[in-house]
Write a structure and sequence with these properties.
Elements (H helix, E strand, L loop, with lengths): L1 E4 L6 E3 L8 E8 L8 E8 L3 E3 L7 E8 L2 E4 L2 E3 L3 E5 L8 E3 L3 E8 L10 H11 L3 E4 L2 E4 L8 E3 H10 L14 E4 L6 E2 L6 E9 L4 E8 L4 E5 L2 E7 L2 E3 L2 E3 L3 E5 L4 E6 L3 E7 L15 H12 L5
Antiparallel strand pairs: 1-23, 2-3, 3-4, 4-11, 5-10, 6-9, 6-11, 7-8, 9-15, 12-13, 13-14, 16-17, 17-18, 18-25, 19-24, 20-23, 20-25, 21-22, 21-24
Helix pairs in contact: 1-2
Length: 304
């Protein structure tokens, strides 16, 4: 179990990332690096322009929009209250945003079992890659004379450098990202929990990822359980033996539970994590160079 007060976590501003933008990143919850169940739960503070080419990932990604409008695909944007599920293997983008926005982002290994590249692995790979190339507008360009493809989507290039092999991506279980307007769902009573209402958004993939919001009236109690994350969007109360408030985060493993007790009306976002036992062996997918070539073609990046 992890309990973290998001407003106490440092905001790290990175001015030179694979996306070539200045972004404040606040890590709230994290898994165990190097394991299939590793995950990273962060809040992104975007200030100014943001661009990425069309791309896809070998992991699952969730986004919840807190403030501002974040573009994600050909002019389509996510507004406050929208939840997006970006399945591994599904293409999205190009992305563009030129205004400030605040987004909750949770990234974790998907059904393929490829896992999730840790922040430390990513940082080390980027530092090494900058000695023989450059990141620009979401693309990594190798210097003249350096072996390998001249231009590669930035995340794919970083992943391949970190692991020392072509990035293999499982066929997407959903053809494209799923965007949910959580404000359009009704609050319904939660059985067996007086004073608690719920909005169920769905359960995704064979790894059984639930997504929901819970609203607690003052004095109500919610028992959270199952492998996943919970983020307080508003309200105040106690969580186990600690106080909670806006941006308090909770991570539970499969056999764990925790109790929220509301002092004032509380809104909680649940994003589930995959059942690790349900993940496949990554060797089941051997897309290799074909996968890399498709990524380049769809992203509009010249292969050279």
């Amino acid at each position: 179990m992890q309990i973290a007060q998001g407003d106490e976590m440092p905001i790290v501003v990175e001015g030179s990332t694979i996306r070539d933008t200045s972004t404040g990143r606040q890590t709230i919850l994290t898994g165990e690096p190097g394991t299939p169940g590793h995950f990273l739960y962060r809040i992104f503070y975007q200030r100014g322009e943001y661009n990425t080419p069309r791309h896809r990932h070998p992991f699952d990604q969730w986004r919840y929009q807190l403030e501002g409008d974040c573009g994600y695909d050909r002019g389509t944007g996510m507004k406050p209250g929208m939840l997006g599920y970006f399945p591994e293997g599904a293409y999205y983008g190009p992305q563009h945003a030129d205004e400030s926005n605040l987004t909750v982002i949770m990234q974790c290994g998907g059904p393929s079992g490829n896992g999730y590249l840790s922040a430390a692995q990513e940082a080390a790979a980027i530092a090494e890659m900058q000695t023989f190339g450059r990141f620009e507008d979401g693309v990594f360009y190798r210097n003249e004379g350096v072996p390998g493809r001249r231009a590669v989507e930035a995340f794919q290039a970083t992943w391949e450098h970190a692991y020392g092999r072509p990035m293999t991506i499982a066929p997407p279980q959903y053809a494209e990202p799923i965007l949910l307007d959580t404000e359009a769902y009704r609050w319904l009573p939660l059985a067996g929990a007086p004073g608690v209402e719920v909005k169920h958004f769905g359960t995704f993939t064979e790894c059984a990822l639930p997504a929901a919001r819970y609203r607690l009236a003052p004095g109500a109690t919610l028992r959270a359980y199952g492998r996943g994350t919970f983020l307080v969007l508003s309200g105040r109360g106690t969580l186990e033996d600690q106080p909670y408030r806006r941006l308090t985060g909770l991570y539970l493993d499969s056999a764990e539970d925790a109790v929220f007790h509301a002092i004032e009306t509380t809104d909680i976002l649940q994003i589930g994590l995959p059942d690790v036992a349900a993940m496949r062996e990554p060797a089941a997918y051997q897309a290799g160079e074909a996968s890399a070539a498709r990524t380049l073609a769809v992203a509009g990046i010249p292969r050279s």
